[in-house]
Amino acid sequence: MNEYSVPEWLTTYQGFKALCSAVSGEYIRFYLTTGCDSVTYTHSQNTSGLPRYSCLLTAEDGASLLLELGEWNGRLDEVPAAVRAWLAANASLRGCRPNKSRYVGDRYWHRQWQLANPW
C-alpha cells in the first residue's frame, strides 16, 4: 500500500490561505460593522512587491501591518487578535457611518464605533 505524503508546497499554500482568511475575516467584520474605509487590505497573490505568502493592512496615515506566513505559521489562531489590536490602534472610527444592511455586525467593533461616535 502506498502512503501518501502531502507535498510541502501544498501545506505552505494551505497555511497561506488560512492566514489570508484570518486577516481578511477580521478586516471585513471591522469594515462592515463600522463603515471605516481608511484601511486597505491586500495580499501577496494580488500585489507585487510583497513578500511571498504575506498579507498587508495599510492605514491612511501610512501605518502598516505586514503578516508573513513564516512568522505566524503554527500560531494562526493568534492572527485575528493581532489584526484587531492593530486596527483599533490605527483606524479612526470618528465620523464613520456603517452602511445599512442586514448584517448585525461584530459586537467588539460596534462598541468601538459607539465609543468613537457618542452622538
Descriptive report:
With 119 residues, this protein is α+β, with helices and mostly antiparallel strands. The protein has one domain (8-116). It contains 4 helices and 3 strands. It has a 3-stranded antiparallel sheet. β2 and β3 (64-68) form a beta hairpin. α1 (8-34) runs parallel beside α3 (79-90) and α1 (8-34) crosses α4. The longest helix is centred in the first third of the chain and has 27 residues, at 8-34. The termini are far apart. The model has no long low-confidence stretch (mean pLDDT 94).
Provide key terms for this protein.
119 residues, alpha+beta, three-stranded antiparallel β-sheet
Ranges where pLDDT stays below 50 over 5 or more residues in a row are: none
Question: Beta-strand percentage?
Answer: 5-15%
Sheet having the most strands? 3 strands, antiparallel
Terminal CA distance reads 68 Å
Structural class of the secondary structure composition?
Answer: alpha+beta
What count of domains describes the coordinates?
1
Number of strands: 3
Order of helices and strands: HEEEHHH
The total count of helices amounts to 4
The strand line-up of the biggest sheet is 1-2-3
